[in-house]
Amino acid sequence: MTSSVLLLWIVGGLVLQLAIYLGIGFGRHWQSYQALRTTVMDEGLPVKPRPLPAEEDTVPAAWSGWRTFRVTHKILENADQDICSFHLAPQDGQALPPFLPGQFLTFRLTIPSPPGNIESVTRCYSLSDAPHPGHYRVSIKRVPASTPEPTPPGRSSNFFHDQVQVGSLLQVRAPAGHFYLDRSDAPVVLIGGGIGITPMLSMLNWCLSAQTGREIWLFYGVRHHRELVAQPHLEALAQLHPNFHLRICLSGNNADDGVDPRYRHHGRVDVDLLRRVLPLRPYHFYICGPTPMLESLVPALEDWGVASAHIHFEAFGPASIRRRHAEPAPTSPAPASGTTVSVNFSKTGKQLPWQAGCGTLLELAEAHGISVATGCRSGSCGSCQTVIQSGEVFYPQAPDFDPEPGTCLMCVGTPQTSVTLEL
User: Who wins on pLDDT, 359 or 334?
Assistant: First the structure.
């Protein structure tokens, strides 16, 4: 082998080593780049501008008025068999608009009345599951009817349990309501008393699917385990999600409660329990339950130091929960105590005096024999919406139903000035 050939072999070997070195270096840099790119994408930071998915541009809008739904499933949810879930699909087959977890549906029901007549009744029921494009779900507790009364309570809930079957058609208004879970990452405490668990199920199911890392607590208060709704579902979620903490609070004296000891607490949901269990965090509290529960919990939370803006609640039916720390007075206050204003009902020709403390416009009308269409009696369903011909109406608490311009909700409204109503 000549010296020139040997030199070529040496140069070739050096070039090969250099190529291998550069290839390895490039490969390492490419792996680092790919890892960084993946991290950026996982954190939700844009790698490059990209169009939104097509489905986000075609979210169906909420409908106005009434829409026909068909009942696709009817499921008893507890051992006492007094809570039933109804799955509803739109008869037109079109996609449903999303709703905010915690909102409700309004139903217009045609219910037989004792003399053989048909009565139109409007009622609101909370959605009890996360939003789904194909169906809604409500869970309704049967309210025992009191037979001596001419219009006993529980007409709508008993109608659902006894008369509404799979295949039944119902008239439904779009989801509404101002009580719903915010979409921040703040830690959240959900408190449901009895059937007040229904909006909490909607909030919980949505949160665990859309905000998988958000800290969430659920305190569910009932008398005994036979009243529990979705107990296996809740316990399974608590085992699956380490950020979800479940406490089932049993106020009765039933020793054989059938609840997993890891999630069981004997006693009511009260602020002492919350102080013992909850870590120090800036929680937002969402509470739904009977009025006595809210009347004790809301001021107790404020006394504990929870900011009023962090306490959100919804009571069963009409209720006025007084906070310890009053919010700023509304810009359009009601008439001062002792001031008399006139309420005129144009169709009936009645002119009635009203003073602060005399109740709502609905109560005034009913006390004087004026018939008003009613439903929820809490500013949610819109049944009592009435045209204002002159004057102004004041709401001590903002209603969930947004009345049309030039109208008012008589069940929660009071006159701000002398007012004339088309009734």
Answer: 359
CA distance 412 to 423: 16
Q: Can you give the length of the chain in residues?
A: 423
Phi, psi (deg, nearest 5) at residue 381? -95, -25
Cα–Cα distance list, 324 to 295, 297, 300, 306, 319 (Å): 11, 11, 9, 11, 16
- Cα distances (Å, whole numbers) of residue 166 to 75, 88, 169, 309, 403: 10, 9, 9, 42, 33
**Buried/exposed code over 58-85 (b: 16+ C-beta within 10 A; e: otherwise):** eeeeeeeeebebbbeebeebbebebbbb
pLDDT value at position 9?
63
Q: List C-alpha distances in Å: 369 to 348, 356, 390, 419.
A: 10, 21, 22, 18
Distance CA 231, CA 199 (A): 15
pLDDT for 314 beyond 60 = yes
- SS3 of 7, please? helix
Q: Is 12 a residue whose pLDDT tops 80?
A: no
pLDDT at 4 over 70: no
Domains for the chain: give ranges and CATH numbers: 67-144+152-176 (2.40.30.10), 188-315 (3.40.50.80), 340-421 (3.10.20.30)
The β-bridge partners of 141 are 83
Q: Which helix (H) or strand (E) holds 342?
A: strand 340-345
Q: What is the pLDDT of residues 162-205, one digit of tens each?
A: 999 999 999 999 999 999 999 999 999 999 999 999 999 999 99
Euclidean distance between the first and final Cα of the chain, in Å? 117
Instruction: Judge whether 320 and 397 are in contact, CB under 8 Å.
Output: yes
Give how far Cα 349 sits from Cα of 344, 346, 352, 378, Å. Answer: 7, 5, 10, 27
